[in-house]
Specification:
Residues 40-354 form the Glycosyl hydrolase-like domain. By secondary structure, this protein is an alpha/beta fold. It has a single domain (5-140, 196-212, 258-403), classed as TIM Barrel (Alpha-Beta Barrel), CATH 3.20.20. It contains 14 helices and 11 strands. It has helices at 34-38, 62-78, 105-108, 119-129, 157-160, 179-195, 220-226, 233-255, 287-291, 295-300, 322-333, 363-371, 385-390, 395-403, and strands at residues 41-46, 83-89, 133-138, 142-144, 165-168, 171-174, 200-203, 260-263, 306-307, 339-344, 377-382. The chain has an 8-stranded parallel barrel, surrounded by 6 helices. β1, α2 (62-78) and β2 form a beta-alpha-beta unit. The protein is globular.
Length: 412
């Protein structure tokens, strides 16, 4: 979504697909409550880190960049989506004229060089003109997808405050354990929220970084200075992320009360073998233990407006079965003010490197059919924009034909 390295999660070999859900678990469309037929999240992520979706390459002219962006918005409309989640702070940088951080290199090809236009402002205006919501997607702590501070601008905050930065796994990160870092990244993000009428503020799955074998995230000094009240370093790290979430939610509501705050975490909170409250999975990554993100708590406590767990696995996968994770998350969301949307792996559909299930154009449509049996599921978000535009095997066309026959507004 940085969702480039997140794909490293290793799963067991593909098992046979489970049978289709019982008819009683998936009522016919006519039986749906009206709100579900008329208001549901139909979103797509539009990633800019390493030019994943947009712009197609660095250094395009302003008019070329704008034209590509407009095409993505038009594609969303064509598939009757209603929300675009645009990555505007991919790596401690900005896709708007920020008061805190440099222009992103993914625009001009050179960090700090103005692209000659206002991408975020244009995106908001053009999305709204098409009836789309525009959610601004921020990565809180990633500084760079390399580990050489000298490649950053001399004026970059990470250069001016080297004590804020941790090298880990070939990348640079701000240290979540420093209160001054937490305050700064919020200031940087809120700059965009204050300047533009965005409909949402969105985090992805990167909090503490994904584990890298044989490496240690060096936050010893921060732990000595700030972790005294905690029984373990893990508990202190989770509290750091909890504070980021609560404080960001509060600041969003204060600055732009109409905007919603949502997070799209990795899809497994904890395995049941680790915690009886966990899911029936055998995931190699657990957000609670490895990313120090207590995603279940955020929902149960109602700290965030919506959550979009990345359920990027097919129905029947032994290690992480979509058909088991979906009801687990529905139960977590039950009775909470936090709305549940489901992150869908459109990027896998038709990819020859993926298991057989993803070569079937109907796999994603079956996901949505399964979700219809769980009233807590209020919509879906698809990763990501270039895959929507390409639609290799017609999986998104199948979703639209089967489920998006009528326009729908996003739930509020």
């Amino acid at each position: 979504m940085g969702r480039v390295s997140r794909r490293a999660f290793a799963v067991a070999a593909l098992s046979a697909l489970t049978a289709a859900p019982r008819a009683s678990a998936a009522p016919a469309p006519a039986a749906r409550p009206p709100r579900r037929a008329l208001t549901e999240m139909r979103g797509m992520w539009l990633a800019t880190v390493v030019n994943r979706d947009w712009p197609t390459r660095q250094g395009l002219s302003a008019s070329e960049q704008r034209a590509e962006l407009i095409r993505h918005l038009d594609t969303a409309v064509r598939y009757r989506l209603n929300t675009v989640i645009l990555q505007v702070r991919p790596a401690a940088d900005a896709l708007w004229p920020s008061a805190h951080e440099p222009w992103s290199q993914y625009l001009s090809g050179s960090q700090g060089r103005a692209p000659g236009w206002d991408p975020l402002g244009t995106a908001v205006r053009q999305a709204h003109a098409r009836g789309l919501e525009l959610h601004a997607w921020f990565n809180p702590y990633r500084v760079a997808v390399h580990d050489d501070p000298a490649r950053l601008l001399p004026s970059h905050p990470a250069r001016r405050h080297p004590e804020w930065v941790v090298r880990y796994g070939g990348k640079l990160y701000y240290n979540p354990g420093l209160p001054e870092v937490r305050a700064f990244v919020q200031d940087a993000m809120m700059d965009a929220v204050a300047k533009y009428p965005v409909d949402g503020v969105h985090f992805d799955d990167y909090f503490y970084p994904y584990p890298v074998a044989g490496q240690t995230f060096d936050d010893d000094a921060a732990y000595r200075a700030h972790g005294g009240g905690f029984s373990t370093r893990a508990a202190w790290r989770r509290d750091n992320i909890d504070r980021l979430v609560r404080e960001t939610a509060s600041r969003v509501k204060k600055i732009r009360p109409t905007a919603r705050f949502g997070i799209s975490p990795f899809g497994v909170w904890r395995n049941a073998a680790t915690d009886v409250r966990g899911s029936d999975t055998r995931a190699g990554v657990q957000t609670y233990d490895d990313l120090y993100a207590d995603t279940r708590k955020w929902v149960r406590e109602g700290w965030i407006d919506y959550i979009v767990p990345q359920l990027y696995w097919n129905i029947g996968l032994a290690a992480a079965d979509y058909a088991k994770l979906l009801p687990w998350w529905a139960e977590v969301a039950k009775g909470s003010r936090t709305k549940l949307y489901v992150g869908e792996a459109l990027y896998k559909a038709g990819d020859p490197a993926q298991p057989a299930a993803w070569q079937d154009a109907a796999e994603l449509s079956r996901h949505l059919a399964l979700a219809e049996g769980h009233p807590q599921v209020r919509g879906h978000v698809f990763f990501a924009a270039k895959d929507l535009a390409e639609d290799r095997i017609g999986a998104m066309a199948r979703v639209a034909a089967d489920h998006y026959g009528r326009p729908a507004g996003p739930p509020r």
